[in-house]
Design goal:
The protein is mainly beta. The protein is built from two helices and 17 strands.
Length: 247
C-alpha cells in the first residue's frame, strides 16, 4: 500500500550497442547501451585501477556522468557525478556526489581522482584511479547524459532569492526536473508532473541524497512552463540570491 515513482529512459531493449574486452589498463572491458537520439547511455565496465577512457556512444560530449561501484555496499561508497556546469572553471577536476548534499569538491592534492582532470569528448569519457570509480577488478555502471534540442536540457542558472525566480529556458515543456546547488552544499531536488501536482504550481518534490519520502510542504516550489521552468521559492537549496544551480 506504499506509493512509489519510477522515471525511465529507453535505450536498446537491454541489448548492447557496443562492447569490448580489456586490452590494457587504459582500455577497460565494457558493455554499452546508447541512444544518441535521446542523449542517454549506460556503460557497465570492469575497473583497472589506472587512468582510463570509456566509449559512451552519444556522438557528442556528455554534459553529465554518474558512476557507481556495483560490488561494494559500504555507506562510505558514493555516486560520483561529473557535471559540465558545476560552479567551477574546470569541472573535470571536481566531484559531486549524488547521495550527498555537499557542493562540487576538488581534492587539493589530487585533482585527477575521479575524471583524470579530463573533460569528456564526443567519443569517450575519462576515469581516474580512485576505488569508487575504478578499482581493479570491480564492476561499475556509468550513466551519461547529453542535451537534445526539444527533448532534454542540462545547464545551470543563478538564483535571485525571490519567489519570482530566474526563468530557465529549455525550449520544451519539462516533465521532470532535477536541481542541485553546486557553489555550496544543497540537496538534489526532483520534480515531475505525474505525481500529486500534474499542473502548476508544483509543490511536491523528492530528494536523491536522503531516504525521506515526498516533501509536501504545500508552498509553491516550481512552475513548469511551455518552454522552460521557474522556481517559486526562496529556499536556498533552489533559489538563493547569487547561488549556482545545475539542472
Amino acid at each position: 500500500t506504499d506509493n512509489y515513482v519510477a522515471w525511465c529512459w529507453k535505450l536498446n531493449a537491454g541489448s548492447a550497442t557496443a562492447s569490448a574486452s580489456e586490452t590494457d589498463n587504459a582500455n577497460p572491458a565494457y558493455s554499452q547501451q546508447a541512444n544518441a537520439t535521446s542523449g542517454f547511455s549506460i556503460i557497465t565496465y570492469t575497473g583497472t585501477g589506472a587512468n582510463a577512457t570509456l566509449p559512451h556512444g552519444l556522438g557528442v560530449a556528455p554534459e553529465m556522468v554518474w558512476v557507481r561501484c556495483r560490488d561494494n555496499s559500504s555507506s562510505s561508497d558514493h555516486w560520483y557525478v561529473y557535471n559540465k556546469y558545476n560552479a567551477t572553471s574546470n569541472p573535470e577536476q571536481y566531484e559531486i556526489y549524488l547521495n550527498l548534499t555537499s557542493g562540487a569538491y576538488r581534492d587539493s592534492s589530487d585533482n585527477t581522482r575521479a575524471w583524470n582532470a579530463t573533460a569528456p569528448t564526443s567519443s569517450v569519457f575519462s576515469i581516474g584511479d580512485i576505488a569508487d570509480v575504478n578499482q581493479d577488478g570491480k564492476s561499475y555502471v556509468a550513466y551519461c547524459f547529453a542535451s537534445v534540442e526539444g527533448h532534454s536540457k542540462l545547464n545551470t542558472y543563478i538564483g535571485n532569492g525571490s519567489a519570482d525566480s530566474t526563468y530557465v529556458f529549455t525550449n520544451f515543456r519539462p516533465r521532470w526536473v532535477m536541481v542541485k546547488r553546486t557553489d555550496t552544499s544543497g540537496g538534489w531536488h526532483i520534480f515531475d508532473n505525474k505525481r500529486a501536482n500534474p499542473f502548476n504550481e508544483i509543490t511536491v518534490r523528492l530528494e536523491a541524497d536522503n531516504a525521506d519520502g515526498e516533501n509536501t510542504g504545500g508552498t509553491p516550489d516550481i512552475d513548469f512552463l511551455s518552454n522552460g521552468f521557474k522556481m517559486r521559492t526562496t529556499f536556498d537549496n533552489m533559489n538563493a540570491s547569487g547561488g549556482t544551480y545545475d539542472f
